[in-house]
């Protein structure tokens, strides 16, 4: 009885699931400047509509006239001073509101008695519009820099407070249990488990708080201000200069985008450990 010769079978290549890679490739535009397409198209359509007479130039000046106004403000040294004052106010107010939001949001999330005492009041105050604070701040703090910075801090506080609180409360309970089983004390659990796990929520709150700070800036600079982009808006309205108003609005948009990009870069660096399927 003859034995059949043994045959060597080559192992099949391992099956890999490259779905996350395909998702990244599908969603990544491949060019960081693709976001400029829409603004450029909008500016060209805007210019063409005004030149064709479809839009009144005194109500909506064309981009070419806005560029001339911007050049006039820059050469007159007025615009850099307004921008510098507004940036300092936003940074000061945002820093104050963000620090308080992180501290109080963390305290409310970690202690049920603190939550019962503070959270209902903060949730009620969160619904108050920005302009409603102006008369009260004028009565309390006068017309100097203090009411402006405090108003911006109020705007930045609530998004950071909510995000810090939600970030801690959404931490997976199993992670905390593993830390307890490993013998970590309360401080070590907060530092090594809760803080890293809450960072994604916290950065979302910080970015939202920063954008709200820029929005509250305009209301803040209506408080007897003589400098700043909010003052520039008010001055353009009172003098009938729509070009100045639009230039101030566009500068606010650019500054808001730049500051958000800085926070987003800091978020990417701080959360580089995440293995996210989406970019």
Automatic annotation (TrEMBL):
- For this protein, the parts annotated as crossing the membrane are 33-57, 90-110, 122-143, 149-168, 189-206, 212-233, 245-266
One Gene Ontology biological process: cellular response to sulfur starvation
Entry's PROSITE patterns? ABC_TM1 (PS50928)
Q: Look up keyword Iron and say if it applies.
A: no
**Upper classification of the organism:** Bacteria, Pseudomonadati, Pseudomonadota, Betaproteobacteria, Burkholderiales
| Highest taxon above the source species | Bacteria
CDD domains (alphabetical):
TM_PBP2
Cellular component terms per the entry's GO annotation: plasma membrane
Q: Name one Pfam family in it.
A: BPD_transp_1
Put simply, this protein is called ABC transporter permease
Q: Which UniProt keywords apply?
A: Cell membrane, Membrane, Transmembrane, Transmembrane helix, Transport
Membrane topology type, per the record?
A: Multi-pass membrane protein
Q: Which family does it belong to?
A: Belongs to the binding-protein-dependent transport system permease family.
- Where is this protein localized, as stated in its record? Cell membrane
Q: Give the PANTHER family listed for this entry.
A: ABC TRANSPORTER PERMEASE PROTEIN, ALKANE SULFONATE ABC TRANSPORTER-RELATED, MEMBRANE SUBUNIT
